[in-house]
């Protein structure tokens, strides 16, 4: 999607953080028409206070992205205001950390519903419309470096991010026939307010084994991310990836050595079975199948 001017982007979580950075770049620098969807009205109001001072086309919509009917209605509204969605940015996410043995089912359900089901709802709402329209498009899924790295206290969050990484990689192999590009953004530290996401945790997920609105906890979490990427700078990385149809969006070289070590550990584990008799049996069958294929002579 080289020519983005005038095209429509739908950005979840667009009232703040990483998603707001994406919305600013898409609207101001790519001149796209941008719908920002967010569960928090105060975040939408603050964002629109910013955009109202700019000569851009931005439309806010209140959305609980775990509500599938509401999601469909939000995309309907986007189409009525700006037209069909060309770029879907599945960016909204929440986090809450703690020892996995202290987690409640509500702790699991909240992060799974937002971080996984919310992304599924976005893809399964917008993707069929893109396919039916037949004009291509692009889908961005924002995961995390936690889609690669498991650390203590991040068990639930890590599980959600591994899941949407799998979804993104699956879309990558299935969408080219529809001319729909796919990008997977995996941020490390970003200077946002995600550490306060529990403030928007619905009451239906009220039973927690972790912290609530605790300013001391928030301050500690903020110290971890405050020196990370600026959201607008990260939005520019996303814009470049969309324009150049780049799948892996991993602007954190500091994770490379750890990833090499994990990759090698996996390869070593695979190769430790190289002498297993069933490996030889499978390879013999595979070679025979190749010889039996038409045109193999």
TrEMBL record:
Keyword Nucleotide-binding: yes
Keyword field: NADP, Nucleotide-binding, Oxidoreductase
Source taxon at top rank: Bacteria
GO molecular function: nucleotide binding; oxidoreductase activity
Binding site for NADH: 16, 18, 43, 64-65
InterPro entries: NAD(P)-bd_dom_sf, Sc_DH/Rdtase_CS, SDR_fam
Gene3D superfamilies: NAD(P)-binding Rossmann-like Domain
Reactions it catalyzes: 2,5-dichlorocyclohexa-2,5-dien-1,4-diol + NAD(+) = 2,5-dichlorohydroquinone + NADH + H(+)
Family to which the UniProt record says this protein belongs: Belongs to the short-chain dehydrogenases/reductases (SDR) family.
Keyword NADP: yes
One Pfam family in the UniProt entry: adh_short
Source species: Sphingobium sp. (strain NBRC 103272 / SYK-6)
Protein name: C alpha-dehydrogenase
């Amino acid at each position: 999607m080289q020519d983005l001017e005038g095209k429509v982007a739908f950005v979840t979580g667009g009232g703040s953080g990483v998603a707001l950075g994406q919305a600013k770049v898409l609207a101001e620098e790519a001149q796209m028409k941008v719908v920002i969807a967010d569960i928090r009205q105060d975040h939408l109001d603050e964002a629109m206070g910013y955009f109202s001072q700019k000569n851009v086309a931005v439309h806010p919509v209140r959305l609980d992205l775990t509500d599938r009917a509401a999601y469909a209605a939000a995309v309907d509204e986007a189409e009525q205001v700006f037209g069909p969605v060309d770029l879907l940015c599945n960016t909204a996410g929440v986090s809450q950390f703690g020892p996995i043995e202290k987690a409640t089912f509500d702790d699991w359900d909240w992060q799974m519903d937002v971080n996984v089901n919310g992304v599924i709802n976005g893809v399964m709402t917008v993707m069929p419309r893109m396919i039916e329209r037949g004009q291509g498009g692009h889908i961005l899924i924002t995961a995390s470096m936690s889609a690669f790295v498991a650390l203590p206290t991040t068990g639930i969050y890590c599980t959600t991010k591994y899941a949407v990484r799998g979804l993104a990689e699956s879309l990558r192999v299935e969408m080219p026939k529809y001319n729909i590009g796919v990008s997977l953004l995996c941020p490390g530290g970003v200077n946002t307010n995600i550490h306060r996401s529990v403030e928007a945790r619905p009451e239906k997920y009220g039973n927690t084994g972790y912290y609530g609105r605790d300013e001391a906890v928030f301050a500690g979490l903020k110290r971890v991310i405050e020196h990370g990427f600026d959201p607008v700078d990260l939005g520019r990385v996303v814009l470049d990836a969309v324009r150049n149809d780049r799948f892996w969006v991993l602007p954190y070289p500091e994770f490379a050595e750890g990833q090499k070590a994990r990759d090698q550990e996996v390869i070593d584990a695979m190769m430790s079975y190289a002498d297993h008799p069933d490996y030889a049996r499978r390879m013999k069958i595979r070679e025979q199948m190749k010889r039996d294929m038409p045109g193999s002579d």
